[in-house]
Amino acid sequence: MKYDTIIIGAGLSGLAAGIRLAYYEKSVCIVERHNRIGGLNSFYRLRGREHDVGLHAVTNWAPLGVRSAPINRLMRQLRLRPEDFELAPQIESAIVFPECTLRFGNDFSLLEAEVAEHFPAEIDRFRNLVREIDQFDAFRLGPRPSSAREVLAERLKDPLLVEMLLCPIFFYGSPTPDDIDFLDFVILFRSIFREGFGRPRAGIRPILNRLTRQFRDHGGELKLNCGVQRIIHDGHRVNGVILDDGRLLEADNVLSSAGLVETLDLCQAPPEIRQQHPAGELSFIELICCLDIEPARLGIDRTIVFFNTSERIPYHCPEGPAELGCGVICCPNNFHYDQPLDDGRVRITVLANPEYWLDLPVDRYASEKETWRPRIVDAACRIVPDFRDHIVDTDLFTPRTIHRYTGHVNGAVYGAPRKIRDGRTYLEGLYLCGTDQGYLGIVGSMLSGITVANLYLLK
Amino acid sequence: MNEEQIKQVILEILARIAPDEDLSDLKDEVPFRDQLDLDSMDFLDIVMELRKLFRIQIPEEDYEHLASMESTVKYLAPLLKNVESPA
């Protein structure tokens, strides 16, 4: 049979697009190379414990009734109820620099008060910036490259405040070293600061399960362990895909969430097109620590801490294996759940050098992970209260892990620096969604799938 | 379907697209946009739902007829006159 659309990748964007197409009776098949769904936001079980990959928190927190909030628009488009994701709101997060800490939560007035207290000379300029961000039309398609760092340096005077505001935004979505496109800055500022964080008690699983059920209930087909080896086309238009096992699946359209350069490679795109699109180079190590105690009892009472220890955030590919001077410390226990999690968790994310981790021989790879494990814990314990005596298990994943499970070149979590906002490619019938289309975060990735499906695939 | 049946169908579609909106006071002659918090994605869904239910294609240049309940019913009446009500 010939499908209306084949979707490459069963991550959040692919599943969301799939739901839209299946709901409107398009014949749609999602093919996923891995043996489970989720892509960059997935899950696994290790030594009896459940872990999430990716998800620290779902951004874009909004009360159930606010219709215009992105998360609620998203749920309407998927014909789900906002309560289906079972999100619990965060307790409180912070940006921690040596000379200053700014707290923020799901009520924007906290950050505003913190800026007023710590940067009294900046508060009027900060409010003007917030107004500008609120009025910015972020969902209009079309390229608009400009540096958020430059815009902020113009609008605010104090470089420390600029650096502090950029810190969470870089770590939660910038594919660009030391900067971020102003449009992405706006989207992330709203989703992190204006709206905030929530998390389902059971992590990413209930979200992925709910999406998969919705997709299948409406007739969508999902094939796991089913990688795409090549996208078939005649140089102008796609005809389908060839799977890893050599089977051909025909389709009028292919929607790829594999990433831009990854998708171009699947097309065997001409070098002159391929060269226009450099791969992303920012990747991370994440260390998950399981504790025998509620982190709050040790004084780790914040939800997410974004830290930086130098004057300027070194948000670029580190020269050594990893950069411990800045990062994210996430404590999934610190959300307002109905009941506490089964064990304590601290997750630490730092920048890593993809080339280094990808090129290590197998035996050195294991020993290098052992070397970096305590270093990363030590770096975190300089920022939050010491939890070293309470660690009962850890797991560490690197750019190599990310590359293996997502296929992203360099394990680049936020994809290529240059986004394809309209989702179109050099081939007719081939579209992009997900990280490289350009809406960021959990909610952004789902909106990406929906937007591209609505624009091109429901006709 | 008669006009009243079409109106019921539209109300059901709106209830699916905007489950948390109160539709009981909806005024037929006033644009949806002025009474309900609908964005362009929601309007696309009205068209798509009609297509799913009745297999009718509404060309883009006709979307303006879907502005209010009154104009929508008037526009759809001839298209749906030989169609059975789904209820």
Structural class of chain A: alpha/beta
What is the third-level CATH name, the topology of the largest domain in chain A?
A: FAD/NAD(P)-binding domain
* Major beta sheet summary of chain B: none
Order of secondary-structure elements of chain B: HHHH
Query: Helical segment tally of chain B?
Result: 4
What is the gyration radius of chain B calculated from CA atoms? 12 Å
Strand coverage percent of chain B: under 5%
The count of domains of chain A is: 3
Distance between the ends of chain B: 10 Å
Task: Show unreliable segments of chain A.
Answer: none
Global structural class of chain B: mainly alpha
Structure description:
The complex is a heterodimer of chains A (459) and B (87). Chain A is α/β, with parallel strands linked by helices. Chain A folds into three domains: 2-86 and 202-278 and 418-457, FAD/NAD(P)-binding domain; 109-155 and 162-192, no CATH class; 281-413. Chain A has 14 helices and 18 strands. In chain A, helix 1 packs parallel to helix 8. Chain A is globular. The model of chain A has no long low-confidence stretch (mean pLDDT 94). Chain B has a single domain (3-76), classed as Orthogonal Bundle (Non-ribosomal Peptide Synthetase Peptidyl Carrier Protein, Chain A). Chain B has helices at residues 3-17, 32-35, 40-54, 69-80. The longest helix of chain B has 15 residues, at 3-17.
